[in-house]
Design the sequence.
């Protein structure tokens, strides 16, 4: 991507050696067809850089606060003697994967809502690249790629803090960084499709935060095992990317003992939801930008 | 890389073909949204290097036509060819040829002025080694060099518009689409923009522009079409349209709002055509002064009278009517 187009002889003569010519439209189109999603991801990352400090603070500050408050503070009240309740590990180790996954899902709830609305309606940022050789699918994909990178970075920081707290006993704990990223996409992509369909902002995103993200956070086996809840609310966990992600994270971070079938189910559920969300998002972007 | 070389060769051999006579050809171009027909079977061709205008009232179908030319909106029927390519099947290839200035600015407000140009250039796969000096050159062209490091939201409306134009030039397009480029700008900003657009025209860039400023169309357009309700009402150069649809001069008379309506009968026969408006009466005549003398000879004493040259505005209003379009 860094090769220099050779300046034509005429230009070099008439307008000085600094003058370069753009490559031909055919080359632009060929490159955009191939790398378009990456080009748009680059734009989103540049915009993220302008609030990069927030991202880092969120990445470091949130786990430190939660791990202290819950894993250290609340843990003194939790009966750690009942060895089986938390899979035989400390309360801190029990909730660490849940917090990691939840943080990614909450980031998804931000990155796949307001910026999407900004793209279509407020500042119409998607319409700039839409007039370039990029396609609507590539714009959606680029946005997703950049956010995925943020998930990875943020989860890696989170995991590093968890590891410093000694809350990830297994050597496979780092896999939960990938699990958190997957959970973020699994929750975020269907939400992105929804955000792309909204024409008028009537506070829908605040409702999503209050009535979807918060209940999922509380009832996904986050602070206590899901089966300690009555069946009436247990289903919330079953349909929650946070629960599926958290259970997977526990398998990797402390060898949580669950049936391999269940482990596979978690992965299938998360991947399935993410793929469905991507298909819907793609359709919505093509439809809306092509109007 | 070999693929790219190949396509580069293809495109240069294409330029020698007869397809390049017209850079844009539209035939029976139609676009409907549900029951609404926004563009109703229009046909036109634009040769390379021409400044081609689409004039029309709000809702006439100008922007819809621009979107179809820009390869971002699919037509309902008819055919369209940009540089010999169908934007429906070759969207990225068509868009790679174009520079686009949309009606509403959609700059990256969080990014700095110069970064807006760099990021946009990346969408065309242009390398940084090209983009850095090009961005500086375009900032100079848009008179924004000392704003290079500013955030976009700190710019005035005119500056944002110039930045949008600079951005549209990052890939050195040979066709520039401008959708109401100067709407909302003050006279100074408009004149600066016109000057920049005129320079691009001198460099051989084909300009396709929509506007509802008649002076803008007269200043910039070699040829234009007047569009109303999705159809072409007239086509030609500004001068030929004035010749065809208006007279050389117009005599404007004010008799006071009460008398304007009734005076028509008394002015019958003066000039070639008479139009009675609530606030004044217009007499279209080859010689305005002579018409005014005839008015005086009939003993009529207008409160004010004005003789002026006919303008594109007269043509426009005659063709698209005077009722308000919202």
Sequence:
């Amino acid at each position: 991507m860094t090769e220099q187009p050779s300046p034509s002889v005429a230009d070099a003569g008439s307008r000085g050696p600094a003058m370069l010519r753009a490559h031909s439209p055919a080359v632009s189109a060929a490159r955009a067809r191939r790398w378009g999603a990456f080009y748009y991801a680059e734009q989103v990352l540049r915009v993220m850089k302008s609030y990069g400090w927030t991202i880092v603070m969120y990445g470091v500050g949130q786990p430190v606060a939660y791990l202290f408050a819950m894993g250290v503070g609340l843990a003194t009240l939790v009966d750690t003697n009942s060895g089986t309740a938390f899979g035989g590990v400390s309360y801190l180790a029990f909730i660490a994967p849940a917090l990691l996954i939840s943080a990614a899902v909450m980031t998804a709830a931000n990155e796949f809502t307001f910026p999407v609305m900004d793209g279509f309606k407020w500042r119409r940022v998607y319409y700039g690249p839409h007039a370039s050789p990029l396609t609507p699918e590539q714009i959606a994909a680029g946005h997703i790629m950049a956010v995925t990178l943020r998930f990875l970075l943020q989860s890696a920081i989170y995991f590093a803090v968890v590891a410093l707290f000694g809350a990830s006993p297994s050597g496979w704990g780092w896999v939960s960084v990938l699990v958190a990223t997957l959970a973020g996409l699994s929750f975020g992509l269907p939400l992105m499709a929804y955000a792309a369909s909204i024409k008028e902002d009537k506070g829908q995103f605040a409702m999503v935060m209050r009535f979807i993200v918060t209940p999922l956070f509380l009832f996904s086996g986050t602070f206590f095992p899901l089966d300690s809840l009555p069946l009436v609310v247990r289903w919330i966990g079953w349909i929650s990317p946070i629960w599926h992600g958290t259970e997977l994270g526990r398998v990797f971070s402390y060898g949580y003992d669950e049936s391999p079938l269940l482990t596979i189910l978690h992965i299938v559920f998360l991947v399935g939801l993410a793929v469905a969300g991507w298909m819907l998002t793609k359709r919505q972007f093509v439809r809306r930008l092509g109007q | 890389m070999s693929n790219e070389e190949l396509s580069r060769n293809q495109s240069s051999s294409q330029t020698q073909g007869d397809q390049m006579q017209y850079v844009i050809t539209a035939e029976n171009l139609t676009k409907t949204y549900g029951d609404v027909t926004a563009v109703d079977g229009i046909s036109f061709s634009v040769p390379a290097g021409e400044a081609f205008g689409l004039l029309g009232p709000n809702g006439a179908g100008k922007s819809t036509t621009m979107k179809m030319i820009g390869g971002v909106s699919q037509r309902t029927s008819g055919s369209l060819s940009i540089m010999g390519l169908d934007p429906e099947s070759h969207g990225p290839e068509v868009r790679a040829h174009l520079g686009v200035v949309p009606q509403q600015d959609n700059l990256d407000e969080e990014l700095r002025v110069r970064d807006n140009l760099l990021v946009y250039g990346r969408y065309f796969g242009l390398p940084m080694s090209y983009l850095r000096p090009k961005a500086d050159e375009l900032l100079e062209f848009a008179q924004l060099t000392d704003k290079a490091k500013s955030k976009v939201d700190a710019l005035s409306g005119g500056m944002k518009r110039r930045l949008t134009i600079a951005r549209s030039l990052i890939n050195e397009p040979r066709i520039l689409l401008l959708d109401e480029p100067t709407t909302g700008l003050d006279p100074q900003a408009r004149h600066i923009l016109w000057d920049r657009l005129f320079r691009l025209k001198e460099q051989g860039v084909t300009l396709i522009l929509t506007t509802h400023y008649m002076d803008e169309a007269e200043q910039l357009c070699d040829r234009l079409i007047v569009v109303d309700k999705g159809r072409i009402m007239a086509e030609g150069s500004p001068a030929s349209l004035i010749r065809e649809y208006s007279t050389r001069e117009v005599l404007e008379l004010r008799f006071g709002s009460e008398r304007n309506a009734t005076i028509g009968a008394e002015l019958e026969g003066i000039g070639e055509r008479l139009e009675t408006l609530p606030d004044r009466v217009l007499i279209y005549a080859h010689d305005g002064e002579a018409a005014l003398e005839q008015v005086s000879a009939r003993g009529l004493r207008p409160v004010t009278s004005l003789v002026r040259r006919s303008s594109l505005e007269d043509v426009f209003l005659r063709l698209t009517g005077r009722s308000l379009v919202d």
Q: What stands out?
A: Chain A touches chain B through 47 residues (CB under 8 Å).
